[in-house]
Amino acid sequence: MFVSVVMITYNHSLYIKQAIESILSQVTDFEFELIISNDKSTDDTDLVIRETLAQNPNAHKAKYINHETNLGMMPNFVSALSNATGKYIALCEGDDYWCDDNKLQIQADFLENNPDFSICFSNVGLLTSSGMKEDNRKKKIPEVSTIKELAQNNFIHTPSVLYRNHLIKEFPKYFTEAPIGDYFLHMLNAQHGKIKYIDKVLAVYRIHDASYWSSKKDKEQRAIIINFLNTLKTFFDDDIQKIINRQIQKIQSKDMSFFEKKLFKLKSFFYR
């Protein structure tokens, strides 16, 4: 398989139809698969997935895994990744969606033509109850970056990313326990090459109050992030550790403008 799209979901009955259809509508000159991993949702997510696939002419591209027991966020993600066979991996959670039918083609073409790059990501739309806006409209996201820039803060939105599948069966043990899965994944991938930013909205990240992360108070969020970063840094060399230490110091200083605007405005993989 050329591209595997990994979609983890839990209680996304209101959003999962749009998510699935946005993947299966991709126009490509290569084969791709969609891996949907439902972590025993307690709402109608399973029913909506089955109905959506039954009605979609491209449903043969989808592999649906409906777990009989609840694995938890990160074990479900690792399980989904273990079923992905593609040369490249794309991510889209069950409450996000893609808004450009050429997303995969655009990103795959870039990575195919630029072997020194490991990750390609794009601008996204942020969808809230009050409407849509571009996330990176006023941010200075570099067109080309490396792991050193990424170690300063996570500027990659999960549904926008496509990466080379370097990590088959190579995840550190801590990965399944990490409270922030996407940043850890991007850092691991960034060890293998440069990072390309496409300044075009190719995906939509949905913000809603039901997410795990949004339910946490600021103090609790900071504590989770600091503990995570202290563990994360141990997987990298001294230079990267120093950069992550500076990130920790900024969070500890309670500079909330930095925290809100530059660090983890993403939901990461907190989907419940």
Question: What's this entry about, in short?
Answer:
The chain is α/β, with parallel strands linked by helices. It contains 9 helices and 10 strands. Helix 1 links the parallel strand 1 and strand 2.
Task: Please explain how this structure is put together.
The chain contains nine helices and ten strands. With 272 residues, it is of the alpha/beta class. Strands 1, 2, 3, 4, 5, 6, 7, 8, 9 and 10 form a ten-stranded mixed sheet that branches. Helix 1 (16-24) runs parallel beside helix 2 and helix 7 (218-232) runs antiparallel to helix 8. The longest helix has 15 residues, at 218-232.
- Report helical residue fraction: 25-40%
**Alpha-beta content class:** alpha/beta
Q: Residue-averaged pLDDT, rounded? A: 88
Quaternary structure classification: single chain
Report the principal-axis shape.
globular
Major sheet summary line: 10 strands, mixed
Low-pLDDT windows of residues: 256-272
Which labels suit this protein?
272 residues, alpha/beta, 10 strands, 22% strand, globular, disordered C terminus
Furnish the topology, listing elements before pairings.
Elements: E1 3-9, H1 16-24, E2 32-38, H2 45-55, E3 62-66, H3 73-82, E4 88-91, E5 97-98, H4 103-113, E6 117-128, E7 131-134, E8 144-145, H5 147-150, E9 162-164, H6 181-190, E10 194-206, H7 218-232, H8 238-252, H9 256-263
